[in-house]
Amino acid sequence: MYDLEKRIWSVILVALLCLGVIACGAKQDPMEKIRDLEFSVIAEDNLPEELLSIISEKKVSPFKLTFQDQGYVYICIGYGEQETGGYSITVNELYETSNAIYIDTNLLGPGVEDKGKKSPSYPYVVVKTEYIDKPVVFK
């Protein structure tokens, strides 16, 4: 009878160890994309006044900031002063992981017609998406 109890406890112990190993292996990578986020690129005319004021103060230098308003988060990326106009910005990715929101953008240079003009510009993009209580990581 004693051997039977010992075997039962051994089987239970092995089963618990297997469950522990399986549970540890099932953890999600914190960098793994859960889902792409829907977003809108917001024109300057449609920005909250407080956010527009912050951007106006920061736009001379490169900046990255977030702003929360009415259930949305505005993710802002500025590329600082450029010698000419004609720049554009692409949003390559905006996605959620288990621990953060990731955004990746690119500044695209001016066209040939804009390169000769020497009027400075301050390219930036503002992306609006649903508010999620996670930090934003700028890639």
3D architecture notes:
By secondary structure, this protein is of the alpha+beta class. The chain has 3 helices and 8 strands, in the order H-E-E-H-E-E-E-E-H-E-E. It has helices spanning 2-25, 49-58, 112-115; strands spanning 35-36, 40-41, 62-69, 72-79, 88-96, 101-108, 124-130, 136-138. The strands form 2 sheets. Strands 1-5-6-8 form a 4-stranded mixed sheet, with no helix packed on it. A 4-stranded antiparallel sheet has the order 2-7-4-3, covered by helices on one side. The relative contact order is 0.21. The mean pLDDT is 87.
The helix-and-strand class reads alpha+beta
Order of helices and strands: HEEHEEEEHEE
Secondary structure tally: strands: 8
Shape: elongated
How does the major sheet shape up? 4 strands, mixed
The portion of residues assigned to helices is 25-40%
Give me the number of helical elements.
3
Strand content: 25-35%
On the 0 to 100 scale, the average pLDDT is 87
- Low-confidence spans: none
**What distance lies between the first and last C-alpha atoms, to the nearest angstrom?**
63 Å
Strand numbers in spatial order across the main sheet: 1-5-6-8
Radius of gyration in whole Å, from Cα? 25 Å
Oligomerization: single chain
Write a compact overview of the structure shown.
27% of the residues lie in helices and 34% in strands. It contains three helices and eight strands. It has helices at residues 2-25, 49-58, 112-115, and strands spanning 35-36, 40-41, 62-69, 72-79, 88-96, 101-108, 124-130, 136-138.
